[in-house]
Amino acid sequence: MIVFLLVQQSLNAQDIHWSQFHNTKVYLNPALTAVFNGDTRFHGHYRSQWNKVPVNYLTFSGAVDTKFTTPKLKNSLFGFGLIINSDEAGDSALKNTNIGLNGAYTHQLAQKHFLTLGAQLAFANRRFDFSDLQFGPQYDGDIFRPDFDNREVMDNASNSYGDLSVGLNYHFQNPSKRSKLDLGVAMHHVTEPDQVFFTSSNGSNLPRRFNIYGIGVLGIGQRVDLLLMGTAQFQGVYSELVPALAVRYHLDITKTKETAIQLGLAYRTSETNVDALAPTLELFFREWHIGLSYDINLSDFNFQYGLQGTRGFGGPEMSVTYTITKVRMGEFRICPIY
């Protein structure tokens, strides 16, 4: 019964959240599709949360996005992307899988200013396995009896639905000083799809998630950049605020040999509670970008029913990005986003 209650909590949980939100741009907002320096971008993201408690979460996200230009639209470009999100939690192996197709249109407002409108159409599936769950009626007073009827009505352990997200992003860039800024807003689960498992239920709609963010890079020297970032997310009764600060040092600024190291710190709060600190180390080498972070749990998260809490352990997170940039002849570019 204890495990079942934990499962029920998970069924109504928030969406995936990342401490390295600035590295999951296609997930953060579909309007960030193809807003990067290069032509095609591959991204992978992994997180293992709460390893010290019985209901740890394993989360993976993979994405690819690319841009298309046409000489007929010299101040515009189109972006397309594919993203796959998957996570699993608890003894019931509750799994959420989401596959989305992103589309975006970027228009150059002025020399250094761009506006992007994006949307995502997705297919999602939620499922769990109740074969390893234990219920009160399966105890005979002394021991657990798996052959006893658990008296639970579980007629459907899987549910699939369509999903829609939309977003808007403003992008500023000054390549000569390595300075840039992204400001945006996104609304996820626009149609609030029904994610109910049981036919006898009245339904359980997935609440809309609103996301506001800012990601700024300021070149303050020949080799030093200062990064100021933050995101605020709201979904139903849940809310989350994550401000972050980082410093990037360029070890090599030679063209095609760019190498840099970045140290940062993110601070996450949920509703009215302090949640976690997440120190981050990021490495840049030519077309590769690797981010490593670890959540230090500061919340009062402590299970009831005699189970242990996190003891300060949140979980490691890792991101890897690889960008392909085509070689172009001459200096002519269509709607350049560096």
Descriptive account of the structure:
The chain has 338 residues and is mostly beta strands. The chain has a single domain, classed as Beta Barrel (Porin), CATH 2.40.160.60. Helices cover 4% and strands 53% of the residues. The protein has a 14-stranded antiparallel beta barrel with strand order 1-2-3-4-5-6-7-8-9-10-11-12-13-14. A hairpin with a 4-residue loop joins β3 and β4. The longest helix has 10 residues, at 2-11.
Q: What amount of the residues lies in strands? A: over 45%
Oligomeric description of these chains: single chain
Distance between termini?
54 Å
Coarse morphology: globular
Largest sheet: 14 strands, antiparallel, barrel
In order across it, which strands form the biggest sheet?
Answer: 1-2-3-4-5-6-7-8-9-10-11-12-13-14
Q: Give Rg in angstroms.
A: 22 Å
| Mean model confidence by pLDDT | 82
| Helix count, DSSP H or I runs of 4 or more residues | 2
| Uncertain spans | 1-13, 302-309
CATH fold descriptor: Porin
Corresponding CATH superfamily? Outer membrane protein transport protein (OMPP1/FadL/TodX)
CATH class: Mainly Beta
From the 3D coordinates, which CATH architecture would you assign? Beta Barrel
Q: Helix/strand-derived class?
A: mainly beta
* Overall tally of domains: 1
Helix fraction bin: under 10%
Number of strands: 14
